[in-house]
Amino acid sequence: MHSKIFSATPIGVQAHLVEVEVDLSFGLINFYIVGLPDTAIKESTKRISTALKNSGFRLPAKRITVNLAPADLKKVGTLFDLPIAVGILQAAKFISIEKDFLEETLFLGELSLDGSIRFIKGALPIAYDALKLGKKRIILPIANAQEAALIQGLEIIGVDHLSQLVNYLQHNAIIEPTKNKLFVDHKTIGQLNFSEVKGQEQAKRALQITAAGRHNILFIGPPGAGKTMLAKRLPSIMPPMNFHEILQTSKIYSISGKLQKKSLVTKRPFRAPHHTISQAGLVGGGTYPQPGEISLAHNGILFLDEFTEFARSTIEVLRQPLANNNVCISRANQTVTFPASFLFVAALNPCPCGFFGDKRKQCYCSQKQIARYLDKLSGPLLDRIDLQINVQSIQYETIHKKQNEISSEQLYEKIQNALKIQKQRFGSDILFNAQMSSKQVEQFCILTDTAQQVIKKAFEVLCLSMRGYHKILKVSRTIADLDQSEIIDVPHIQEAILYRSLDNYLERHRK
Ligand SMILES: [Zn+2]
Q: How many CB atoms lie within 10 A of CB 202?
């Protein structure tokens, strides 16, 4: 007695087809699962037999062999409980499912001991690839039905108990396919707003440039200056996520098991891991690779506060994802790639005590201490940051001055124009000024003669590297775009030069 059920497993963000074969034969009564299962799958024999018993089915008094094929594919987690249980019921002839139906259907789900079907990780990426795998239908936990229903052209059958599923498969009950109730919130209402931040005009302006050209940014300033408060409001001046972005980011959350409370990620994520985070926590890892913070920030913002406190080795691994917009995690038997395209925001104190250059509090750090502290900064990583800006503590007068602070909506108005200009400029090549190659910088950053004089002087005075020079040009391109100016003029270039404050600071302290 034999049966074959189809299931799938996510590897990275891709789904791979898994055939669940069940064989019942005479011999010693036992229950085996073969085909490279991890411990969760091995333990599933107990769960499955108890769940079957509590749903009114007695496990056949035979030798049960389950094979998960292909054998060389790593299979993780508990989502094979349901296909294995269905395979046993089919092989034991408790139920009889038509061949065509089985061919067209993927089964996923974890079983509770009482037979109820529990939420699983990774339903969305599997649904996403299901049509490509030649399937028309997915039967999965009801808790996962909404996320899977995002995929058009696929029948989603959500079930909450094994006995309910059996009734459905036996045509004794009807389960209506789940329809997607995707609600995308295109308004900024409910989001944090820049109007809640007092003063800090220069930082707000820098963030406007950051959002317009997707430039990574670094804040330098004393503790309590409001660096985190500012960074948290960045999503409010970025365009709403489009369908593709929602899908891509939600897939990552699905794999991490983070979609349980909401069906999709519809707002740009803001991730701010603590500096004690491990390397695997930040970029992803584990025996069966799981996405890290940088992938959870996909299409959103990664904010690293107290940047110098992160372990150097942890910081260094950010280089590859910042350059490629994804992260490759290699394991002995497989390499997994997770998307990781994020706007990078870092913040640091200017010195160990935090108050160097502060107007209110005295800094007692020695020159040597500051130099040692700044040495922790990784040069190659700083190369990925286009804007550097000082954020000063807010003054008493500012707190009490009654003035209307610029709002996110106001900042976004100009950003919208700049995004449109970039779209026309680059076509489908790249999306943002920050991504320009050196060749594109030469092609698109046309300066007036006087602007050229200004950057020439800056090049000499600031001892700019070629890379630093290109960064100033890229940022000035965005500033000109915000101004809707085709050509880059003196004020644009002057403002861009202002955003190299760390370079100056490092220069003064490192020797
Ligand atoms: Zn200090």
A: 14
User: At 218, which CATH number?
Assistant: 3.40.50.300
Determine the average pLDDT of the residues in 331-352. Answer: 90
**pTM (two decimals):** 0.89
One domain for residues 208 and 148: no
| Ligand 1 midpoint to CA 224 (Å) | 14
Q: Give how many domains the chain has, as a whole number.
A: 2
Q: 358 C-alpha to center of ligand 1: Å?
A: 9
Q: Which domain holds residue 312?
A: 201-430
Provide the pLDDT for residue 397. Answer: 67
Give the whole-angstrom CA distance, residue 306 versus residue 308.
6
Q: Is 190 exposed, middle or buried (0-12, 13-18, 19+ CB in 10 A)?
A: exposed
Tell me the per-residue pLDDT of 298-322, one tens digit each, with 9 for 90 and over.
999 999 999 988 988 888 899 899 9
What is the Å distance from ligand 1's center to 310 Cα? 19
Look at residues 212, 202, 194 and name the one whose alpha carbon lies nearest to residue 389.
202
Of 340, 388, 406, 459, the residue nearest 215 (C-alpha) = 388
Q: Identify whether residues 416 and 297 lie together within a single domain.
A: yes
Shared domain for 234 and 329, answered yes or no, is yes
Ligand 1 centre to CA of 382 (Å) is 21
Instruction: Specify the amino acid at residue 60.
Output: P
Say if CB 299 and CB 268 are below 8 A apart.
yes
